[in-house]
Specification:
This protein is mainly β. Helix content is about 0%, strand content about 40%.
């Protein structure tokens, strides 16, 4: 249930919103390779830090790594924009023009 994602289609772009609450900008990476957009986030809790008021009875904060990939087609990295604000990563991808197949033609048999 981590990395909940919304994908919106506009006239010229696809807008991807990913929930990453509690992460800092430098703990998130976005990569584009072979037509796949991969979003990764890693967070570690400092195990050496001890609470001065006692020991932990229960610890529910997330520590670890997660990633998610989406096929986006033949998009160039310079065409993709991303920003991270208030725990939400927003990525904008241009729509790739669909290549049309050639129209069928009849070939004469000699």
């Amino acid at each position: 249930n981590l990395m909940k994602t919304d994908v919106r289609e506009t006239e010229n772009t696809y807008e991807v919103d990913v929930d990453l609450p509690g992460f800092k900008k430098d703990e998130i990476s976005v990569d584009l390779k072979d037509g796949y957009l991969t979003i990764s986030a890693a967070k570690g809790l400092d195990k050496d830090q001890k609470d001065q008021n006692g020991k932990y009875i229960r610890q529910e904060r997330y520590a670890g790594a997660m990633s998610r990939s989406f096929y986006v087609g033949d998009v160039q990295p310079e065409q993709v924009s991303a920003k991270y604000e208030d725990g939400i990563l927003q990525i904008s991808l241009p729509k790739v023009e669909k290549k049309e197949l050639p129209k069928s033609t009849t070939i004469a048999i000699g």
